[in-house]
């Protein structure tokens, strides 16, 4: 895969916390118009990988190129090209929906007049919740607001850490549609998820990560086809149907992580 074609190119990335190596020499690329999922058991190194790309943790070795910019040599350009989903703790608790949108449009240098503000509020269906603070919103409303903020500057690469965890099916579908709209615009999405259903539904390719290493990278359906006759996959399957979760469990093992 040509590096120049990729919106994100991660090459031989390692991340350590003291003596503990959480990410071990991983490489992958994300293309324009692609939704790429990082899947892995708890503690596999997914968030550490995202954090390294986002510039939140220092990595011990490797290179990360975002939209052609090396995150170490050109951090400002690289950061301008990415949108990062913010966790609720990042929002000032005393600010309401409108104030949060105004704050982040200011931070990103994106002009937001009254019409623009109303358009966004309508788009994320928060017109009736403008005066609520973040903590007073439902999980679905919080995620819609977080996603719109992470894309307010139209970044070419959007990174989402477990964007739909805890959402009801309606809210999850709506988020999926918004994520798919990012893909449609030719931008790329890198997300982490524990939902195999989500990976199958929206990811073009997935990387299965375990113990800091990438076990495999493929299209979800291709991965199922490739492994459907593996004895370990058949052994963990239920009701005679082979799913992505069966392949995932067979590849990463049945034991629960600490
Ligand atoms: N700041 C830190 N200091 C020390 N160890 C850390 C730190 N952050 C993460 N780790 C460890 O690194 C490993 C990878 O953690 P990471 O959060 O990247 O995993 P993950 O795949 O995102 O897991 P989860 O699915 O549970 O969110 C884990 O063993 C974790 O305990």
From TrEMBL:
Matches recorded under SMART domains: AAA
Record-annotated membrane-spanning stretches: none
Domain ABC transporter positions: 8-236
Claim: Transport is one of the keywords in the record: yes
Domain of life: Bacteria
Gene3D superfamilies membership: P-loop containing nucleotide triphosphate hydrolases
Keyword Nucleotide-binding: yes
Molecular functions (GO terms): ATP binding; ATP hydrolysis activity
UniProt keyword list: ATP-binding, Nodulation, Nucleotide-binding, Transport
Family, similarity comment: Belongs to the ABC transporter superfamily.
This protein's name: ABC-2 type transport system ATP-binding protein
Protein's organism: Pedobacter soli
């Amino acid at each position: 895969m040509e590096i120049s074609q990729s919106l994100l190119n991660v090459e031989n990335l390692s991340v350590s916390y003291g003596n503990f190596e959480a990410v071990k020499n991983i490489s992958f690329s994300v293309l324009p118009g692609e939704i790429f999922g990082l899947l892995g058991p708890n503690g596999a190194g997914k968030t550490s990988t995202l954090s390294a790309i986002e510039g939140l943790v220092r990595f011990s070795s490797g290179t990360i190129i975002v939209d052609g910019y090396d995150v170490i040599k050109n951090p400002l350009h690289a950061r301008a090209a990415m949108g990062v989903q913010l966790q609720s703790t990042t929002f000032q608790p005393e600010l309401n929906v409108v104030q949060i949108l105004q704050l982040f449009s200011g931070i990103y240098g994106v002009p937001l007049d009254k019409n623009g503000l109303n358009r966004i509020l309508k788009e994320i269906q928060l017109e009736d919740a403008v005066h609520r603070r973040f903590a007073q919103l439902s999980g679905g409303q919080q995620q819609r607001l977080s996603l719109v903020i992470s894309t307010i500057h139209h970044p070419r690469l959007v990174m989402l850490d477990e964007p739909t965890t805890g959402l009801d099916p309606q809210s999850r579908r709506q988020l999926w549609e918004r994520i798919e709209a990012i893909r449609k615009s030719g931008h790329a999405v890198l997300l982490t998820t524990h939902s195999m259903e989500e990976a199958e539904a929206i990811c073009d390719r997935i990387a299965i990560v375990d113990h800091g290493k990438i076990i495999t990278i493929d299209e979800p359906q291709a991965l199922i086809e490739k492994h459907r006759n593996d004895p370990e996959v058949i052994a963990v399957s239920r009701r005679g149907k082979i799913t992505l979760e069966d392949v995932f469990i067979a590849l990463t093992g049945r034991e629960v992580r600490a």
